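Researcher: I'm preparing a figure for a lab meeting and need a structural model of a single chain. I don't have an experimental structure, so a prediction will have to do for now. The sequence is pasted below. Please return the structure as tokens so I can convert it later.
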Amino acid sequence: MTMAAPIVDTEGVSVSESVSALPTAPEPTGRVVVVTGGTDGMGRALVLARAERGDQVVAIGSNPAKGEALLAEAAGRGAAGHVRFVRADLATVEGNRRVIEETLHHHGAIDALALFANRQAPRRTLTRDGLEATWALYYLSRYLLGHGFRAALEASAAPVIVNVSGVGVTKGSIHWDDLQLERGYAMVAAQLQAGRANDLLGVAFAEHGDSKARYVLYHPGFTRSGDLSPLPLMLRAGIRAAARIWARPIPDSIRAIHQFIDTPPAAALTAVDRNTHLPLTFRTLDPRDAARLAGLTEKLLAALPSNP
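Model: Understood. Here is the structure written out token by token.
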């Protein structure tokens, strides 16, 4: 028996790839869960686990081959028809807008948005929008998707956003006068800046007191997860060796995310560093800095040529 596995290319072409010998898809049940970075590591594991539970999952990634493999594995686990793969470049504003449009075409309500997408960049590179790539993918995409899906989240009975980043880490800072790191770039500094920006993103989002959506900042700790291919060979080898000794298994790291989705916290904002709930007075969660960054982000977006 052959069935069509849903694959969407947000560059404007919708396609269906055939997967042979797959079981018939069950009727849609459960929650609607959107996952960025859904074809690698923790994101991939969450997609498959939620699909097995009967949720309808939108998995967003940039690699079509990985998307096809994800769909095939979901079907092999008896979750055919529960995963929709959307190919997109989330480092661009237009890529995020197309994901929002495509997803809302199929789902009027979203129960959970899980944000994993991130990529290490050893050298400073610019996106098509002229933005530093780490900032664009790791922070700005999460800003755009959180706000772009706000109405659909509000349509859910118990919506939650889980931003998987580095809350609890105090190293790094926002380069307020050089957000794009034009005057000095280092991969770790770029990652830390975007991580601190995500802390503030959660604070700013939760400031909308009339929102039903709960925002969770979650730091899973060092996990055997993610695509290391952009890194130099020796660095990749070192990280893999360290991961074998110290890293958490993926199922352990995503266990808390299942809990956040199944039972969203009561508070508008929750910050968890591994197994520790952080006070909202934590130094990286300053509301004044959050408001400042939100204002700068709005100005940055308004100034982009891609802004309609």
